[in-house]
Amino acid sequence: MSARLIPASTKLTQPYWDATRRGELVIQFCQACSQSTFPPRAHCPDCGSSKLQWRQVSGKGTIYSYTIAHRPPHPVFADQCPMAIAVVELEEGPRMMSNIVDVELENVTVGMAVQVAFESIDDSDVMLPVFSPVKTN
Ligand SMILES: [Zn+2]
Known about the structure:
Blueprint: H1 14-21, E1 26-30, E2 36-37, E3 52-56, E4 60-69, E5 83-90, E6 95-100, E7 113-120, E8 127-133
Antiparallel strand pairs: 1-2, 1-3, 4-5, 4-7, 5-6, 7-8
């Protein structure tokens, strides 16, 4: 089994990775115009303000687009394929790329309601956000 890639945090992304360790998904909100944004940025993409504040979001969203990767995009993913790679549109607006887990891959659909979960990566203390279908009862 290959070692997985572990995201490196930067000064900009540290609050995001700190939150995932607490089991929380956070994104930035502009304090000048209220726009939500992801991935992490130094300035609001709408108004240019640098007054961005991290806030926890619901972790709920829908699948905007997806693909099933049969060939690993990098050798370290070999033992995870086939896997669902998706763009998830969060309830709060921004879209994020992630994996869809805990579902038969043939059942993944655009528009599917999903909920964030957090996966540890090997022996690191990094928790990676992934999404699984919302259970309907
Ligand atoms: Zn703004």
